[in-house]
Amino acid sequence: MDVELTHRPSYTHLVVELAAGETVMAEPGAMVTHSPSVSIETESSRDGLVSSAKSMLGGESAFANRFTAESEPGTVTLSPPTPGDVHHHELDGETLYAVDGAYLASDPDIDIDSEFGGLESMLSGAGLTPLALKGTGDVFIEAFGGLETIALDHGESHVVDNDHVVAWEGSVEFDARRVGGLKSTLLSGEGIVMDFTGPGTVWYQTRGLDTFTEEIMEAMPGTGDDGGFEVEF
């Protein structure tokens, strides 16, 4: 499998060149184009790509598409649903954690699961269910906006707003918490943050989708407090 990331960083496009017999998995709706020699098969969580825990708790779909170059090589182009960048990560037996909705595509040998640590975060009010991507092969993680990297030494810590977290290596310890009490949460504009402690790398996106969506809603007529109007039909 040969890959190329084009139109970076704002509208990244993933081009996957498949040899005959090779396969790439991708989230539903990610496909932009593919060669006639490439077949598509939709798989559910029962097929082993995604566990039932991910289907119930994670932000990803319970389904994924399998693109396979049949008798001859072929090309598949993929893109995230929002403007932003894509991180190409090569796993070699280790684990990469990704937040809900960050998974774009992967080698079919990569196992994707949610873990109890993510369940604890969700139940504590963080609304986070990290996905654990394990195995050997290529993984592609999508971001809203640009991608930044935080390299943490052993014992070094950093705090990232949960709306900006994208992924982190399995060697990094993590936890989710609220910022202060209810008053500070409401007035600060923040809510949930994640604490990361090295060693390892953390990736975050330069824009938060939830915050961006709220800004769009405020700008729509009739939704803000600036004397907007409602349209009736």
TrEMBL record:
Pfam families per record: AIM24 (PF01987)
Transmembrane segments: none
Record-linked SUPFAM superfamilies: TRAP-like
InterPro entries: AIM24 (IPR002838), AIM24_sf (IPR036983), Trp_RNA-bd_attenuator-like_dom (IPR016031)
NCBIfam families referenced in this protein's UniProt entry, alphabetically: TIGR00266 family protein
PANTHER family reported in the protein's UniProt record: ALTERED INHERITANCE OF MITOCHONDRIA PROTEIN 24, MITOCHONDRIAL, TRYPTOPHAN RNA-BINDING ATTENUATOR PROTEIN-LIKE PROTEIN
Designated name of the protein: TIGR00266 family protein
